[in-house]
Specification:
The complex is a heterodimer.
Chain A lengths: L1 H17 L18 E8 L6 E6 L10 E5 L7 E10 L6 E2 L1 H6 L4 E8 L5 E4 L12 E5 L4 E12 L19 E12 L1
Antiparallel strand pairs in A: 1-2, 1-4, 2-3, 4-5, 4-8, 6-9, 7-8, 9-10
Chain B lengths: L1 H15 L6 E9 L10 E4 L4 E4 L5 E7 L2 E8 L6 E7 L3 E7 L10 E2 L2 E2 L8 E5 L1 H6 L5 H5 L5 E7 L2 E6 L7 E5 L2 E2 L20 E6 L13 E6 L8 E11 L4 E11 L4 E12 L2 E2 L4 E2 L4 E13 L3 E15 L9 H9 L17 E17 L3 E17 L12 E16 L5 E16 L11 E16 L4 E21 H6 L2 H4 L4 E4 L3 E4 L2 E16 L4 E12 L3 H5 L1 E4 L4 E4 L7 E13 L3 E26 L2 E26 L3 E14 L4 E2 L7 E10 L5 E10 L10 E5 L4 E5 L8 E13 L5 E9 L23 E9 L1
Parallel strand pairs in B: 1-7, 13-16, 35-38
Antiparallel strand pairs in B: 1-4, 2-3, 2-5, 5-6, 8-9, 10-15, 11-12, 13-14, 15-16, 17-18, 17-47, 18-19, 19-22, 20-21, 22-23, 23-24, 24-25, 25-26, 26-27, 27-28, 28-29, 29-31, 29-32, 30-31, 32-33, 33-36, 34-35, 36-37, 37-38, 38-39, 39-40, 39-41, 41-42, 42-45, 43-44, 45-46, 46-47
Classes of the chains: A mainly beta, B mainly beta.
């Protein structure tokens, strides 16, 4: 009994001292699966000049806003095939997250909403295993001359694809969680 | 029995009459604490049935004793009886020490129960084990709600944090079996890792109260105490099993205690509870299931003069987070607020999917004490805590099952306390403590660290003196000094570093430049002085008043300093600030108590003036590729909090009891002249009970809870751009929900079987009318209604 009392403080002290060791620098975290870039490449059906819409945010949820760019001009009365890519450009080479979206296509859907102009319209050109659209492949018809078009691209994770209007591309009842949201102001001439 | 003993004594004494029997046993009875003589103590030689009573000088003498063994018991009113064995071969003179201050050693007899108050002049309420048992299936926050002025802030069905006087999280210190809980519960989305079943009683102290544990409890202190060890050969235990209809939940908790008269003891408590998706009045709250396992073991030796204890406890929580509360950006938040019902509404399930939390807490503690004659008690304690937290988000691809947050916080504490009780009217406590903390944020998550790696060193020293001026007036005064030092290694995004203006103020702490990220080494030191003083005045048998004042300061916690990033559950970017300084609180409390046979009143008021009060405030929006998010930054201001808590209990017609419980807090940001966010609204609980001892202790009670609408709130609404409709809308995150009324019913009865075996059966209905409501202090109020009707059944077996 007595020996326990004599021994205990030393035991405590050694435990306390033993705990204060190591001093390594922590490893930096290179974010995985982060989407930095949304890129849509529009190729005219029957050939012609490609138009690329891109939104790029290299500091993620840091203070810098995404950089939105459109390279090329959309022609009137043309039908374009759109190919969508989502990338993580923080890694070199850039990680292609499009593949992951494709693998889990039943849990993802892109929504394309155009406001402003009356002309341009986007329709889905792909589907998941259940026959619902995914939106990685799309078709853009430009229509007549228009100047104040706003295209909003939204990628939702786990939307309710069976909700009313969702499979037609109406985001209103989709729910889910927004992974990407980008807005492009464009003209057709 | 007595006559029987006497008979035996007479028989034996006739045998030894023949011997030479003129030895003397004499001596003096003294108080262990101050060596003062004790008058009127009984010295009883059990095997001879001889008595002596000590005189005014504590002296006693027993003559005409024969050679042989004596079994002597020395007793005195309000002292613990001492048993001595003496082998008499000569005249003997001996000083016998009795402990004369039993009540001050922590045994205050309140209605036959031995529970000790932690403060003498604090606004303290004790929750007894019978009440705790009724909340066996629930969390600590739910139990504490029983105390007037204590509410809770919730972010999930089992994530319930106590709010005392409008303050919560880091402003509340939780002590479990004399150990300060070191848990990653800085923000509101982390609940304390404690199973209520380990506590025999819980003390809630409003304000900084006792300085023996900490000096930073601006809001209050919650002290959980295990069962007191009784030096007696006993084996007893308790098993509680319960069922809840809402969430189809069940819980079981069992404890076993073994004590020996020699002073050795061992006991254990284990508990398991699980529930599936809870249900609001009209739909299931998907993914609100929980699984909680807990166990604790305690063993040691205790006597009046010395003792030691080893205590181990472990708890593992698996908690689902309401599916519909996980949102991507501001637009999702707007949709959630504007929708009556959540988007996700599926059938009942026990499964817990992402988003979810997994938190475990391990505690190992050992302490020892020794009492010294004419001085007091010295105790030494070491404890180790390991708090490990995983948070799982909805992720894609290979990372699907990988945690997004993986934090391990290890704490080592060493503590020495001295209680000097040699003086009659003055009690002096002092002590010091040291603590080392290591936080490790695992980089394998592939997500930027929410909280950085850091090491924290704390040192504290305190002294408390308590004086009883007379039978009516008691005063105490305590002072404490704490030193806190944080040594962190944190990565900042270069863009954030510059946006914060750290490149100008903190360029010297950069360790390494990695291009887009900077590794920095912030070192922060805080010196804190706390004072606590108060007066307790018993006006007469029925009326008493209490006044106290506390100065306390709380250094900022890691999330207030280091937060930088997107907070998914709140759809906002939260930014801490390296420049944040400690909070300093000046709190004044005043209590009036009235007690007679039928009526008891308790009126508590407090005024808390907090300088540099740390709070979160929206400052604008930032755009990311996920969309736009409001930015919330930590700021400091001066805050005034004023609160009134009232309790009244009235017994009438023998069997009836009515209990009223009201509280209100007024919180004002005096710098910006506007209300403080997240202040509990006015609430009142009325409970009417009928009890009848003759009918197996039947108790029936009906409870009505009224919670008012919080009309005092800061307007933090902001405008946001909704991309899909190319328009701007106002996001109403500020307006509190409407007032609500809830009715609960419960009944219980206790059957007594053979010696000490009791079965208590309890049944109840919460939210009888399945009322739809949302609570201002529930963070899920944006997404879904609160839970609906719940029918509960509980069996408790004491053995």
């Amino acid at each position: 009994m007595k020996t326990i009392f004599k021994f205990l403080p030393f035991l405590l002290l050694t435990a306390f001292i033993a705990s204060c060791s190591d001093d390594d620098s922590p490893a930096p975290v290179n974010e995985e699966e982060v989407i930095t870039t949304l890129r849509i490449t529009f190729t005219p059906q029957g050939g012609g000049t490609q138009v690329v819409f891109q939104s790029q945010d290299l500091d993620g949820d840091g203070p810098n806003a995404p950089v939105v760019s459109i390279v090329g001009d959309l022609q009137t009365g043309t039908t374009y095939n759109g190919a969508v890519e989502v990338l993580n450009e923080l890694e070199t080479p850039a990680e292609d997250i499009t593949e992951e979206v494709m693998e889990e296509d039943d849990e993802h859907q892109f929504f394309y909403t155009i406001t402003g102009g009356a002309g341009p319209a986007i329709t889905y050109n792909d589907s998941d295993g259940d026959g619902n659209p995914v939106g990685l492949s799309i078709i853009l018809t430009t229509g007549a001359n228009s100047t104040i078009n706003v295209l909003t691209v939204t990628l939702r994770h786990e939307p309710d694809k069976d909700a009313s209007g969702v499979s037609d591309g109406d985001i209103t009842n989709a729910g889910g969680e927004t992974d990407v949201e980008a807005t492009f102001n464009f003209t057709v001439n | 029995m007595k006559y029987y003993l006497l008979f035996i004594v007479l028989l034996t004494s006739s045998n030894i009459l023949a011997q030479d029997c003129n030895f003397i046993f004499k001596g003096e009875i003294q108080d262990f604490h101050n060596k003062m003589p004790i008058e009127a103590a009984t010295v009883y030689i059990e095997n001879l049935n001889k008595y002596a009573i000590s005189d005014i000088n504590g002296k006693f003498i027993i003559t005409n004793l024969c050679e042989g063994k004596l079994k002597v018991s020395v007793s005195h009113l309000s002292c613990e009886t001492k048993i001595l064995e003496i082998n008499l071969i000569n005249n003997i003179e001996q000083t016998i020490y009795l402990e004369h201050h039993v009540e001050e050693l922590g045994i205050v007899t309140v209605e036959g129960k031995s529970i000790n108050n932690k403060t003498s002049s604090g606004q303290e309420t004790i929750i007894k084990s019978t009440t705790i048992d009724n909340f066996s299936s629930e969390s600590l926050g739910d139990v504490l709600n029983q105390v007037s002025g204590v509410t809770s802030i919730t972010t999930g069905s089992k994530i319930v944090k106590p709010v005392i006087g409008g303050l919560h999280s880091s402003r509340i210190t939780i002590i479990n079996n004399n150990v300060r809980m070191e848990d990653q519960e800085w923000g509101i989305e982390h609940a304390p890792n404690i199973d209520v079943n380990v506590a025999d009683n819980i003390s809630v102290i409003k304000g900084s109260g006792t300085l023996a544990y900490s000096g930073d409890a601006i809001g209050g202190i919650v002290v959980l105490q295990p069962k007191r060890i009784i030096k007696k050969d006993t084996l007893f235990g308790k098993t509680i099993a319960g069922f809840q209809s809402n969430g189809i939940g069940y819980n079981i908790s069992s404890s076993l205690f073994k004590n020996f008269e020699s002073g050795w003891f061992a006991n254990g408590v284990f508990g398991y509870k699980q529930n599936g998706d809870l249900k609001s009045p009209s739909y299931y709250l998907n993914n609100t299931g929980a699984k909680i396992f807990s166990a604790s073991l305690q063993s040691g030796f205790t006597s009046f003069e010395k003792g030691f204890e080893v205590y181990l406890s472990y708890i593992d929580n698996q908690l689902g987070i309401l599916s519909s509360s996980h949102i991507g950006n501001t637009e999702d938040l707007v949709n959630a607020i504007n929708n009556e019902e959540p988007y996700i509404s599926e059938d009942f399930s026990y499964s817990i999917i992402a988003p979810r939390q997994e938190a475990s807490h391990f505690l190992a503690k050992t302490n020892m004490f020794k009492r010294f004659k004419s001085f007091g008690k010295v105790s030494l304690q070491y404890d180790y805590q390991n708090s490990h937290r995983f948070e799982f988000d909805k992720r894609v691809g290979d990372d699907r099952d990988k945690a997004a947050v993986d934090l391990k916080l290890q704490t080592h504490s060493l503590k020495a306390d001295v209680n000097v009780d040699k003086f009659d009217e003055i009690k002096l406590d002092f002590g010091l403590s040291g603590r080392f903390q290591d936080n490790f944020a695992n980089p394998d998550t592939g997500v930027r660290r929410l909280i950085p790696d850091y090491k924290k060193y704390d040192f504290g020293i305190y002294a408390i003196v308590k004086k009883e001026f007379n039978e009516k007036l008691t005063a105490d005064f305590g002072v404490r000094y704490d030193l806190n030092h944080i040594d962190a290694l944190k990565f900042y995004r270069t863009s954030r570093w510059e946006e914060r203006g750290y490149d100008e103020d903190f360029s010297d702490i950069i360790v390494e430049d990695l291009g887009t990220q900077l590794l920095t080494n912030p070192k922060l030191t805080f010196h804190n002085i706390s004072v606590s003083t108060g007066l307790l005045y018993d006006v007469d048998r029925e009326n008493s008043i209490l006044f106290n004042y506390g100065l306390s300061s709380r250094p900022p916690n890691p999330s207030e300093i280091f937060s930088d990033g997107l907070h998914h559950s709140a759809a906002r970017i939260e930014l801490g600030d390296l420049r944040i300084d400690k909070e300093i609180s000046n709190r004044f409390g005043f209590t009036y108590k009235f007690n007679n046979e039928n009526l008891s009143l308790n009126l508590e008021t407090h005024y808390n003036l907090i300088n540099n009060f740390i709070y979160l405030q929206p400052t604008g929006t930032e755009s990311t590729i996920r969309g736009s998010f409001p930015v919330w930054e930590y700021f400091q201001t001066n805050a005034n909090l004023f609160g009134v808590d009232a309790t009244a209990s009235y017994k009438f017609l023998n069997n009836w009891n009515i209990n009223l419980n009201s509280s209100y807090v007024y919180g004002q940001d005096s710098d910006n002249d506007r209300p403080i966010i997240d202040m509990p609204s006015f609430r009142n609980t009325s409970k009417l009970s009928y009890s009848k001892k003759e009918w197996n202790n039947l108790i029936l009670s009906l409870e009505h809870i009224f919670v008012g609408k919080q009309n005092r709130y800061p307007d933090n609404n902001f405008d946001t751009y909704i991309a899909s409709t190319d328009s701007f809308v106002t996001v109403d995150i500020s307006t509190p929900p409407a007032a609500y009324n809830l009715f609960n019913f419960s009944t219980e009865t206790t059957f007594s079987f053979a010696d000490k075996i009791k079965l208590n059966v309890m049944a109840g209905i919460n939210n009888i009318f399945n009322t739809k409501y949302r609570e201002y202090l529930n963070r899920l109020r944006y997404f879904a209604d609160d839970i609906g009707r719940n029918i509960t059944l509980q069996l408790k077996l004491n053995y």
